[in-house]
Amino acid sequence: MISAFLGLGSNLQSPRAQLQRCIDTLAQLPGTQLMAVSPFYGSAAIGPGTQPDYVNAVAQIETALAPQDLLTALQQIEQEQGRERGPERWLPRTLDLDILLYGDQVVNLPHLHIPHPRMHERNFVLLPLFDLAPDLALPDGQPVRQLLQRCSRDGIWLLEDTHTGER
After folding, report:
1. What is the pTM of this model?
2. Mean per-residue pLDDT of the chain
């Protein structure tokens, strides 16, 4: 079993409910155990036009799934929850799931990059990741704590009345 961290986000069709449904589904993945889920955060949308704010969290799992199989499973969850993929990036979505870290492995495939290549600049990833694992370091040795210190805290807020805590 490998410890992996997943980024969760939604800004369409009841985002908090979308994340909770996703968490429930993650707990049912074969060969996988949901270990913990961060508090939910609100964040301003990145991307074109005016979009609703996002709800974001990070989940920690222990999994026997290989990285590509995990990605396939996550994309299936996104699809089941109404995710529509198109040529444009950063559009509103019902659910966005990213593999942030997969043990200490580095994966560079055309459709999968681990660690997530932009996580170091995203407060909506680093804050909930830090909540779960404050002493965690990336495979290259960079501590999450230091990455978070260098990242702006603008446009993010803790959602007090949502799911939090370990499973």
Report:
1. 0.92
2. 90
